[in-house]
Amino acid sequence: MTENTQKQPKPQKLVGVKGMNDILPPDSARWEWLEKRVRGLMARYAYRNVRLPIVEPTALFVRGLGEVTDIVEKEMYSFEDRLNGEQLTLRPEGTAGLVRAMVEHNFLYEGGKRLYYMGPMFRHERPQRGRYRQFHQIGAEVLGFGGPEVDAELILLARDLWKVLGLQDVRLELNSLGQPEERKAHRAALIAHFEQHADLLDEDAKRRLHSNPLRILDTKNPAMAPVVESAPQLLDFLGEASLAHFNAVKAILDANGIAYRINPRLVRGMDYYNLTVFEFITESLGSQGTICGGGRYDYLIEQVGGKPAPAVGWALGVERVLELIKEQGDEQAAPVPDVYAVIPDVAALPQAIATLQVLRQQGVSVQMHAGSGEGMGSMKSQFKKADSSGARFALVFGAEELAQGQVTVKSLRDGAGAQRLEALDQAPSWAQSLQSI
């Protein structure tokens, strides 16, 4: 055997990046079902869609989220652009990018905006149920309005979404982070408290003690629970205006029958929040129980270079919401075609496809049988595929029917297999009878 005729090694099969998942049918139908309902609800609340880049300047997240947050310190996918040396990051969340877009395009100078977005986010962390390296968020943001009514409106919007999706056992937790000066006084009290109990702090808490002590309150370390529970509460440091804002939010929620629990340890994971913060939590997903969270971020617009303007928003994790829907047994069936076209012979293809196009234009969902390149396959195999497709009807384009300008419409779901002949040139008139009710 010569060198040129030696067997070449088989190429190694490539697989996706761990924690970045393919979404294939029929699972993709569940995503479409969710997205459709989100779009419908957002329209009823008069929120408009925005679509934002996946890659942003790294400085946007360092400045907006905070240098000592877990996201910036540990989780961002950052890299240097080889062409110009610019530091770039795959977006780990959506709010900072949306604010950047509003500032860059002077979008708020026309007045306040209600906006929403959908899309993938990226964080380098250990993949587990409900937590992936590429995950998807749906976010709702209100910019340019400082009143408590929009905080409450966003919570009402999320509550209505759970209703639309049929979700049960989702509880709301609420807190206020006050304003910077109030947090500054609370911060000093926190540091003093934790310094008195330094022997009880883990390494992460010790590292955060003087850089971001508020984040210690969000620890997941059960051994630190007693020292965290005894720490000073930010609510005790709120001034009159912050308390009035928080009480107004609660009053609107009370008037709308929304139950909530005040959680003085709720701080969220980004530094940009002030005043109202909230999370929607379920017990059904274990440690990944937060399915939606957000709050007010009145200083972020100025931080990224815009004129000062108030803002508030939330984001939900799509994977977690879909997992919760599945956990509660409310699975959505994958869509099926109305009709499967059985085509016994390649000679029938031109006339058959022309008819199928007319039906599609009338709103009928049609799956056409496709051959292997060596013919269309047997009638038995075609009917088997028609049945497995889930279609309600089969259209049989036999030679005899076509010679008379007709097609056989055969029921696949009534058990009796009833069938009838229909005229090809009258397809618009009988198309509606094929559609799912």
What does this entry show, briefly?
This protein is of the alpha+beta class and 437 residues long.
Taking all residues together, what is the mean pLDDT? 90
Number of helices: 15
Query: Span from first to last CA?
Result: 66 Å
- Count the E strands: 16
Helix/strand structural class: alpha+beta
Gross CATH architecture of the largest domain = 2-Layer Sandwich
Describe the strand arrangement of the main beta sheet, using strand numbers: 1-5-6-11-10-9-7-8
| Beta-strand percent range | 15-25%
Low-pLDDT parts are none
How big is the Rg? 29 Å
What best-fitting shape do the alpha-carbon axes yield? Answer: elongated
What is the fourth-level CATH superfamily of the largest domain?
A: Bira Bifunctional Protein, Domain 2
Return the CATH topology of the largest domain: BirA Bifunctional Protein, domain 2
Integer tally of domains: 2
Task: Give the class-level CATH name of the largest domain.
Answer: Alpha Beta
Helix content: 25-40%
Largest sheet, in brief, is: 8 strands, mixed
Polypeptide structure, described:
The structure is a single chain. With 437 residues, the chain is an alpha+beta fold. The protein folds into 2 domains: 242 residues, BirA Bifunctional Protein, domain 2; 96 residues, Rossmann fold (3-Layer(aba) Sandwich), CATH 3.40.50.800. Helix content is 34%, strand content 20%. The protein contains 15 helices and 16 strands. It has an 8-stranded mixed β-sheet. It has a 5-stranded mixed β-sheet with strand order 13-12-14-15-16, with helices on both faces. A hairpin with a 6-residue loop joins strand 3 and strand 4. The chain is elongated. The model has no long low-confidence stretch (mean pLDDT 90). It is an enzyme of class 6 (ligase). Homodimer.
